[in-house]
Structure formats: structure tokens, C-alpha cells
UniProtKB/TrEMBL annotation:
It is a multi-pass membrane protein. One of its GO terms (molecular function) is formate transmembrane transporter activity. Coiled coil: none annotated. PANTHER family: FORMATE TRANSPORTER-RELATED, FORMATE_NITRATE FAMILY TRANSPORTER (EUROFUNG). One of its GO terms (cellular component) is plasma membrane. This is Formate/nitrite transporter.
Length: 273
């Protein structure tokens, strides 16, 4: 089966963006909650697989091999992901949607992704999933959250740029294929790469950081986390918003817009809108 060319993908995505921009708010929000949940499940499964490993390289490799399941589910199920929707910039640049409609989509989808991911984090922390390894998974989850909240602002921003470069490339590559296997392969390698490299994804962090905060709030794990020597002062929602979510989100926007604008400038057709 032939694949779509970059020009065809760009045109197809601009057409799809019109539907995304005009979609009712309730529909966007529901699909965004689903996407936040699905990306979070990628974090759940990858953390569960990697939490008992001692070698940092192996932790990243195992996480990278498993985490892509999240974006696979998002794309194949047709849900709404904030970072991927950065590519809607193509339709705005082409005049097919207004800038107001673009920002409306981004705002609703961001909120829905946050709700889905945080709800999942609470369920994992308070209903036993973090008990795996006798609570070792809870300690690992808190350690990851503290590390993410402890990143310097500029680091979180730049790592966010490179993350969404790779996520949006994964979305483009998925859209080259017309069959499920091809779409999965297009997604897998760039997402594995960003996890291996330690880049920062705002929707993934909507799961990872709240899960660590909730783990510390759960009395079943508090003592274990304290004993592990983790900087628990960083396990607050204030640090999550100011030190992680804001810079990573801004970086993700820049990275995604760079991909979309580049593809638009180089591959758009001259056909009528």
C-alpha cells in the first residue's frame, strides 16, 4: 500500500484541523480527557516495567520501549492531544482556521488532557497500583516527580522543545501510512527516542508529577519516600505548575510549531482552500 507524501500529509492535516477547530467544546474536552488518560497509561506501564532497574540507561531504554503505547492509542483512537495539535498551526497559517479557533482548541484540549492525566495519577496512587514491589514503585514515582520539578526553568523549556519536535514528527510519520501497522511503526521510534533522551512532554508530566505528589500524600508510602532521601520539598503542585508545567508546555508549543511551520513552508500545496 503506497504511503502519503509529506505534501499530502500536510494538506490532509490542514483539512483535519478544520474539523478540530470547529468541533463542539464538549466533544473536544471528552476526547482530550481520554488522551490525557491514554498518555498517562503509557507512563504507568513504562514506570512499572522500569522501576526496579538500577542502571539509568536501562531505565530509559525499557521506558522508551513501552511508553510509545500511549501515543499509539491516542492516534488510533482519534483522541485530542495538546502537543500533537501544535501542528494545527499549518491550518492557521493557511487561513483555513482563525487564530482564535486555534487557541480555543489548544485551551480546551490542554484542560482535558490535564484532567484525564491527573485523575489517572490519583487512581494509581490511592488504589494500590503503586504497591508493586512492596511500594518500590511508589518511591520510584515520587523520585521521578521530584526530578522533573527540580529541573531549572530553562532546561525544562529547552527539553520541551526537542520533545515536541519528535512527537510531532511521530504524528507526521504515522500519517504517512494507510494501515495500522504502518501507523504504529511511524509513532514508535521518535517517541522511544524522546524518552531515551530524557526530553519533557507536558501531557506525560501531567501524569508523572501528580502521581509522585499523590504517592507522597498517601500514608502507605510517605515513610518509604522519606527514607529514600528524595527531596520531598519539591513534591508540591505549586512547583509542578511553576517549575515544570509552564516551561515544558511553552517548549512543547515552540517545538510543535517549528515542525508545523517548516512542513507548511516546504510542503503545502497551492490548491484552493
Amino acid at each position: 500500500m503506497p504511503i502519503f507524501t509529506p505534501t499530502e500529509i500536510t494538506d490532509n492535516y490542514m483539512k483535519a484541523s478544520v474539523g478540530k477547530a470547529e468541533s463542539p467544546a464538549w466533544r473536544l474536552f471528552v476526547l482530550a480527557v481520554a488522551a490525557g488518560l491514554l498518555i498517562g497509561l503509557g507512563g504507568v506501564t513504562s514506570s512499572t516495567a522500569a522501576h526496579a532497574l538500577d542502571n539509568a540507561g536501562m531505565v530509559r531504554l525499557v521506558s522508551g520501549l513501552i511508553f510509545p503505547v500511549g501515543l499509539m492509542m491516542v492516534i488510533l483512537m482519534g483522541t485530542e492531544l495538546f502537543t500533537g495539535n501544535a501542528l494545527m498551526i499549518t491550518a492557521a497559517l493557511d487561513g483555513r482556521i482563525t487564530w482564535g479557533r486555534l487557541l480555543r482548541n489548544w485551551g480546551i484540549v490542554f484542560a482535558g488532557n490535564l484532567v484525564g492525566a491527573v485523575l489517572l495519577a490519583a487512581c494509581m496512587a490511592f488504589f494500590g497500583q503503586l504497591n508493586i514491589g512492596g511500594g518500590d514503585l511508589a518511591v520510584y514515582t515520587a523520585k521521578v516527580a521530584a526530578a522533573k520539578n527540580g529541573l531549572p526553568w530553562a532546561n525544562a523549556f529547552v527539553l520541551g522543545i526537542f520533545c515536541n519536535l519528535m512527537v510531532c514528527i511521530a504524528v507526521y510519520q504515522a500519517n504517512t501510512a494507510q494501515d495500522t501497522a504502518g501507523r504504529i511503526l511511524g509513532i514508535f521510534f521518535p517517541i522511544m527516542g524522546f524518552v531515551l533522551a530524557g526530553f519533557e512532554h507536558c501531557v506525560a508530566d501531567m501524569y508523572y508529577v501528580p502521581a509522585g505528589i499523590f504517592a507522597y500524600m498517601n500514608p502507605a508510602y510517605t515513610g518509604m519516600i522519606d527514607a529514600a532521601g528524595i527531596n520531598t520539598a519539591l513534591l508540591t503542585f505549586g512547583d509542578f505548575i511553576a517549575a515544570n508545567l509552564i516551561p515544558v508546555t511553552l517548549g512543547n508549543i515552540v517545538g510543535g510549531v517549528l515542525v508545523g511551520a517548516t512542513m507548511y513552508a516546504c510542503h503545502r500545496t497551492k490548491s484552493a482552500k
